Amino acid sequence: MSDMPGTTPRWPEPPVIPVAEVGRLGQEILDAVGTVVVGNREPLEFVLAGILAGGNVLLEDLPGLGKTLTARSFAQALGIGFRRLQFTPDLLPADVTGSFLYDQRNHDFVFRPGPIFTNLLLADEINRTPPKTQSALLEAMQEKQVSVEGTTFTLEPPFHVLATANPIEYEGTYPLPEAQLDRFLLRVSFGYPSQEDEREVLVRRMVRRREEADIPPVTDAATLRGMQAALEDVAVEDSIQRYLVAITAATRTHNAVLVGASPRGSLALMLMARAVAALAGRDYVVPEDVKKVGVPALAHRLTLKPEVWLRRVDPGAIVSELLDSTPAPVTGAMPRHSAGPGPRAETAPVDGVDPYRYTAPPRS
Predict the structure, then answer these.
(1) Residue range 81-137, pLDDT digits in tens
(2) Are residues 190 and 81 in the same domain?
(3) What span, in angstroms and rounded, lies between the C-alpha atoms of 270 and 64?
(4) Domain limits for position 45
(5) Per the structure, how many domains does the chain have?
(6) Do residues 326 and 252 touch, judged by C-beta distance below 8 A?
């Protein structure tokens, strides 16, 4: 939290970390979390990719499938501050953000920060609280700051929200507003484990001889910020940019969709694709990265038509259909990449070199 309310503090610069090192550290983090959360490697990779991309993650699934355990395990493996906030119907916005209290000794109002002032906030069962309290998270999730009674406090980076939600058919749940859903970079579901994985959970509990599971930290807050900064060096060349924009645009014209994904969906698709590429040790995105993250990045942004929703059509199935039907860039084609204003750079494919790697033009 900033020492001077209303001012923007200068946080230390993160260390410089190569993209290849991001991939190595990312696999170590996933291995550490996998010692506790069994049999969900790909969903765990999505959660880590969302954190590396600087976003917030919604874990939506049935009770008892490891959502809360996943959030706690990632906080331990990343070596960052962690707080858990249980959302209930009587929770107030001030219980999330904090409030000003009168100090009788100094005869002044003093701000007492709420649980949102941390690095990783677990918003447990976020859809059990009314929309007014849910909205207390919106500013923090988007602008990384909190406003209380006209005073703005900047949240210390890194800051991420991992929210868990039960299906809306469950008793006592409120549907999340579309504006709040759109602020989650991705939505992840685990599903029931296989019988062998479920037995492995029992075996590890017996070996541990206690309920709690501790994970030694793999990184710390500064290293995580360096890993996040390294993603800016992951190139997304022009044909892939057009590809992911075409996928997002297709959600707006599908006959089963009432409201498609906004441009924020295209941005989420790009950020997630870069994070997945970095976890694979690459400094460039390929079409397979976009396809891999399409469903978790876009499905929760679609509003289906009422007659389709009544038939319980899964938005993820619609996104998968669009991923299959949208033409992907042809492997081996000459790529072009524009990083901003100025001339485009072109690189011809060379034997042994992936055609989607960006090579900077020689300086004149």
Answers:
(1) 999 999 988 999 999 999 999 888 888 889 999 999 999 999 999 988 888 888 888
(2) yes
(3) 32
(4) 19-225
(5) 2
(6) no
